[in-house]
Amino acid sequence: MELYWDIYKLEDGAYVDQILGHKQVKPDEVLENVEIVFDSVGGETAKQALKVLSKESMFVSIKDREALGFDKQLEQKAILFIIDMDMEQLTRIGNLVDEGKLRPVMDSVYDFEDVRAAFRKRETGHAQGKIVLSGHKA
């Protein structure tokens, strides 16, 4: 079982003290009384994460409501944010990256010719961040 215990400082001074790899860990087996869950996976992992929330907690998801299968009882226990990306939001996110206020986490960058190696890396389940393919510049 692999857990990521690194501490990440957020822009407002808050901290993320635990990041779980969804393929290695079931949230409801290792956590309890969690204040905030940020879900980027959805499905069964999101349902498990809901079980570990405390009464005054927040559940943030970038998955759609239907994919998560929420029912009314669960919505009372968690606050759900659904993010529908549009050009304005993507521009704002890009500006935050440019200003250094948001830092994407990249595990590795591969040239497009090395696409097979990039997929092999992804299949290991050990990437800590995004695996990026770099194309040729026009």
Automatic annotation (TrEMBL):
This is Reticulon-4-interacting protein 1 homolog, mitochondrial. GO terms for cellular component: mitochondrion. PANTHER family: ALCOHOL DEHYDROGENASE RELATED, RETICULON-4-INTERACTING PROTEIN 1, MITOCHONDRIAL. Coiled coil: none annotated. InterPro entries: YIM1/Zinc_Alcohol_DH_Fams.
